[in-house]
Amino acid sequence: MASASLARLPDDHFAGDDFASLLDETLGRDTGFDGSVVTGRVLRLTDEFAIVDVGLKSEGRVALKEFGIPGAPLEVKPGDSIELYVERYEDRDGSIVLSREKARREEAWTNLERAFEGNQRVNGTIYGRVKGGFTVDLGGAMAFLPGSQVDIRPVRDVGPLMGTPQPFQILKMDRARGNIVVSRRAVLEETRAEQRSELIQGLKEGMILDGVVKNITDYGAFVDLGGVDGLLHVTDIAWKRINHPSEALQIGQSVRVQVIRFNSETQRISLGMKQLEADPWEGVAMKYPPGARYSGRVTNITDYGAFVELEPGVEGLVHVSEMSWTKKNVHPGKIVATSQEVDVMVLDVDSAKRRISLGLKQVQRNPWELFAEEHKVGSNVEGEIRNITEFGLFVGLSADIDGMVHMSDISWDEAGEAAMTPYSKGQTVQARVLDIDVEKERISLGIKQLHDDPAADTLSRVAKGAVVTCVVTQVQANGIEVKVDEVLSGFIRRAELSRDKAEQRPERFAVGERVDAKVISVDRAARKLSLTIKGREMEEDKAAINEYGSSDSGASLGDILGAAIRRRNQTND
Q1: Under a CB-based contact definition with an 8 Å cutoff, are residues 133 and 191 in contact?
Q2: Does the model's pTM come out above 0.85?
């Protein structure tokens, strides 16, 4: 039929636009409507379509699914006027195919282009994830939101942002390709700048503000106050000791803070949380008097001691020197453990410096005092040799304390290392308590004192100036060592061996030889004598002169000494 109509037309009628118009009329099409947006009125609804009058010779139809979410009530009813997009003027059934969704998209693109040109914000909803970012519904037009443009700082969880209408800034737009790139970060930065300016102008020290923890470092936390950040130092988070801010805060946490310091030139803001709470140090001096005992919890251990919390926000330091009566060179961590409950004594309180000195050993009996109560000087004790040093023996007297036997108190006869030779570590010995010094924490012991001094009798008879008979025990280059009564040691220096310098030779004496000598001095503590042969000889010369003559009598010294010797010989005979 269409071909019959064409056959009746003259040949020149097929030229140019007339042929296209004739073809459109014959096929029932008007391509001028395709792709345009028209206004229509809903006539009726069927199971699948809404029938709409758009003012053309045929009615149009729109799929009902374009008017709402499946299962939800329809957003359209007969009589409604709506904007529609003409997909095809007539399909093979003679109906006009319309689209509500594309109409909205066209309208959205028009509005978005206007907003893009005017650098205005647009509202949208993040509804999906794609590679490198997210998809955003801008009222019918789809846009791409790069991951770097979601927020000012990295966002770990985008879940709360999904499905929530919020403003965006259009960065790029290409309608021909259907591409739109938006940014949420640009909106936040602009808003942040406005808030920052407003906040800075009205910021004053002492103000109380609400913020969000933005970042956590070793020394504190940065809090977003709404356009401007402030530093919350770790020491200002709480009155109690906090080793790391993460113990009390976490990123994203809402906090209430007080402005402690504000530098308008550098715009640095120092914040505090503990300042909003009562200061637990008020009245501490009255609450914790020196000498009082309390229980506390170990919160921190250092090389120099341990911190003990007496109550939330109030801590005292137990210095390493106050931790144990006996463990002097031990790390505090080997005496107490973190979180351990301990009993302590208050030693000193400095409220101004917020310092409390505590003692751990003071709540226990001083083992030196306890020993002094149970053992008097002169009493005998028994213990195991725990250590041997170059100057003596250390004997264990209890689980915590030792007593020392100096090498000079080991033997009456032997001296120095020779006296310690018979003893070994782990050996059990008996000793006598010689001295107890509680303040210096020293106990002096003696082993030789368990027996009487064999030289005591000789010492009681020997005095300075007396002449004694000695036995040579050792010949040295600088003199000779001797013994008196086989129990008392003495020494005659080289210069004291004879009044005649030619005879002041130690080698002329032999071990075992008996000699008479005069006592120069007596060291009763060391049981030592200083002797002189020279002095004895000179004293004998003086006595002989007094008895047999003088320098005025005309007798020579030889004559006097000869007479003295002959008389002595006669006496001996």
Answers
A1: no
A2: no
